[in-house]
Amino acid sequence: QVLLVESGGGLVQAGGSLRLSCAASGGRISTYVMAWFRQAPGKEREFVAAISWSGESTSYAEAVKGRFTISRDNAKNTVSLRMTSLKPEDTALYYCARDSVPSAGTYGLQLPVTSGEYNLWGQGTQVTVSS
């Protein structure tokens, strides 16, 4: 059974930076699109960023474009999210997710951005940005 474990969350002042990590165990994630989602209290879970199986393609929500960077290390079976210029509205529980369908060998595909297209989730790591 594949498990995803997020880490790296914490409390940071506005304008600060954090790096989230997602480590997979029990199986490889190298053949899947991986993504980060977030959920703030009282709000729906929303897409943050996604990365193709090879890392050659990425996609970002408009709210984080230019501030967040998603990356992956398939050799280490990890995915990361570098967050800079953090704002109070970035406060949320951040989840790592794996696509429901492997896509290794496929290039140029449109990365899924809805939570329903991902079927494996971590427990989340809390990010709190103070003003």
User: In total, how many beta strands?
Assistant: 11
Q: What Rg is obtained from the alpha carbons, in whole angstroms?
A: 14 Å
- Poorly predicted sequence stretches spanning 5 or more consecutive residues: none
Strand content: over 45%
Shape: globular
Helices, strands, pairings?
Elements: E1 3-7, E2 10-13, E3 18-25, E4 34-39, E5 46-51, E6 58-60, E7 68-73, E8 78-83, E9 92-99, E10 118-121, E11 125-130
Parallel strand pairs: 2-11
Antiparallel strand pairs: 1-3, 3-8, 4-5, 4-9, 5-6, 7-8, 9-10, 9-11
Describe the structure.
With 131 residues, this protein is mainly beta. Strand 7 (68-73) and strand 8 form a beta hairpin. The strands form two sheets. Strands 2, 4, 5, 6, 9, 10 and 11 form a seven-stranded mixed sheet that branches. A four-stranded antiparallel sheet has the order 1-3-8-7, with no helix packed on it. It starts with a strand and ends with a strand. The protein has strands at 3-7, 10-13, 18-25, 34-39, 46-51, 58-60, 68-73, 78-83, 92-99, 118-121, 125-130.
List its salient traits.
131 residues; mainly beta; 7-stranded mixed sheet
Short description:
This protein is mainly β and 131 residues long. The protein has strands at 3-7, 10-13, 18-25, 34-39, 46-51, 58-60, 68-73, 78-83, 92-99, 118-121, 125-130.
